[in-house]
Amino acid sequence: MAAAFPFLPAYVQASETIENTSTAEHVIINGNRPSSLPKEIPTTIEGINARTMEQTINAIDAEDALKYLPSLLVRKRYVGDYNHAVLATRASGTGNSARSMVYADGILLSNLLGNGASFTPRWGLVTPEEIDRVDVLYGPFSAAYAGNSVGAVVDYVTRMPRQFEAHAKLVGFGENFQQYGTDKSYSGKQLSASLGNKQGAFSWWLNVNQLDSDGHPIAFANKLASAGVSSNAGKAVTGAIADKNPQGLDWWILGATGQYRTTQDHAKIKLAYDISPTLRASYTLGYWRNNMNSGVESYLRDAAGNAVYSGDINIAGKKYTLAPTDMANSKNQLEHITHGLNLKSNTKGVFDWEVAASLYDYSKDIARSPTVAIPQADTGGAGRITDGAGTGWNTLALKGIWRPNTEHTAEFGYQREAYQMRTQVSDTNDWMNGGALKRFSAFQGNTQLQSLYAQDAWRISPAWKAIIGGRFEQWQADQGAISNATSTLPFATREENYFSPKAAIAYKANEDWTLKASAGRAVRMPTVSELYQGSISTTAIVNNDPNLKPEKSWTMEWTAERVLNEGKGFLRTTLFHERTRDALYSQVNTMVTPNVTNIQNVDEIHTTGLELAYQASDVYSRGLDLAASLTYANSEITRNDKFPISVGKWQPRVPAWRANFVISYRADEKLSTTLGLRYSGKQYGSLDNSDSNAFTYQGFSSFVVADVRLRYQLARQWAASIGIDNLNNKKYWAFHPYTQRTVVGELKFDF
């Protein structure tokens, strides 16, 4: 029955069964592989396996695997988007990266050093060719996860061989991008190779990947028309494009910026050794390197036709001042390393245990930008260097499973997550290649979360099952400090304790119907960046609040699932509700004089919604598969004393409607074709919903996007695919422009 559901993780055949109390009844995973998943899963779970990905998705980045799963959206702006591809879930928008957790083989990839677009999960540590399966748990209903799971938990399980195997894949892609004054083609390529083998008790896997991506511009220099001064002063220029900003105000678009050219190298080795038939040790070493150069394109021309990048300019009789940084290049040089170690027993007897540890290290993290006008990308000059060396996180988990009888399965454990952020901004006399000189600013801080959790799955009767659990957490923030060029302001240590109860119950009415209900509390702690990343003026803190409260959410869901067509399909209906107090958002505090804009606690947000999910295989004819989902969410700010005008408004970046539809046809064992549709409704980017003009730079728009893919098995070891993402060439926005029509071609070899 499970194999009939192409998007379910149950499709994967393996050696260990994990209860899910769903229509499929079991999620099948390999118990010998590291995974963050608990054995008993008291919540809605969706997933996709490697075979389905290969047939249906133009997957270049790891996050592409989530493209059609219910209620999920990854804000991927271009191929290889490494610093803004944030995951959104049912009641959390793309500005809330800390409200979801992403793992790969038990290693935490979520960047919980901060919350927001620039703290994206480290997707680059996984490549699509490695992925064996991806599972998504919706909501904070498992005691095995911290409060960051309030939105969802994404768990990647990557390949481990059972015999010798080798793989290689070449991908090419191209996009014609037209926006404002830019009309250019951007392209790239990706090469991936893998080797693996299992020899007796020892198995190994090696994957290398290089992505060379030339992305479209993601930002646009602009000036409000009202900022101009009526005057004949300034250099007269042409080429400025009249537009309206998200608030409907007239502005001039002056040029394109943030045109990223990235070269990303990935390497990973995984080793596993079966110490005994029931005890396995495994180790993962991952390496990711990214060199990025950002270009600019000025639309402005002087009387001689020369491009204008800075200085006083005159547009339609008004003078404006272009700062050197309004149209500025930038560079990133990043090298990140991750380690994962796992020791796991799998007796399936009375007691099993697991020890897991991971480390994510910013071995090198350099950002360079100019502070002077640079008319050409290869021109040096004064600038600043931002160095993040010393930043990273580490985790430790001790887990136990006790099965005293067939009615009870108890899971318990201790977890520790520690985050360290170190950022120093220095002046330099050569922003492209020079060394750091005088300190301009700096900030640092640590947070640590230690947790004890336990949950018991009680098989009350053949038809009834309950899961009850709880999580006790001790949170600490210390070594916080913020600096300007001459002064450092330290912050006091904070320590707080919280308890989060969890409960779920499932009733299997008959062979076709299953009913479930889940409830759980989640406490999402403030991140290092939210607490300490700001600036100081004399001895006053600017732009941050080290006394932020954690977000506290109660989430509930009620689900009815029905098996269809003799096990070849299913239909799920889920009603969900979330009440969040002290939500963390950047906003204006209008209750003080002068007004302050920084990250603050929003008193209360309520979200109520309905999610429908449908999947079926061999619909009407053999080889025709369907998957569809529809999500409605009414997400409203119900109390916000610091910014009262936002009360009654929609939560930012959470649309009322989302939908996905995928139809795939396998004509035979060689040929498969897929059409996918993605829809997201109206949304806002601001707490007061003042950004009503969505289809513009810095707007957050609705969209309907179509994708197609055709795959053909050329021979036993060779396959080719061609696909188009955004077939209808929709121009849509999430502050930055999304990718326009992109053609993707693949050639793959498997041995």
Automatic annotation (TrEMBL):
It is found in: Cell outer membrane. CDD domains: ligand_gated_channel. Gene3D superfamilies: TonB-dependent receptor, beta-barrel domain (2.40.170.20), TonB-dependent receptor, plug domain (2.170.130.10). Residues 39-153 form the TonB-dependent receptor plug domain. It is a multi-pass membrane protein. Signal peptide: none annotated. It holds the Pfam family TonB_dep_Rec_b-barrel. Keywords: Cell outer membrane, Ion transport, Membrane, Receptor, Signal, TonB box, Transmembrane, Transmembrane beta strand, Transport. Residues 281-727 form the TonB-dependent receptor-like beta-barrel domain. The keyword Metal-binding does not apply. The keyword Signal applies. It comes from the Bacteria. Belongs to the TonB-dependent receptor family. PANTHER family: COLICIN I RECEPTOR-RELATED (PTHR30069:SF53), TONB-DEPENDENT OUTER MEMBRANE RECEPTOR (PTHR30069). This is TonB-dependent receptor. It comes from Undibacterium umbellatum. The lineage of its organism: Bacteria, Pseudomonadati, Pseudomonadota, Betaproteobacteria, Burkholderiales.
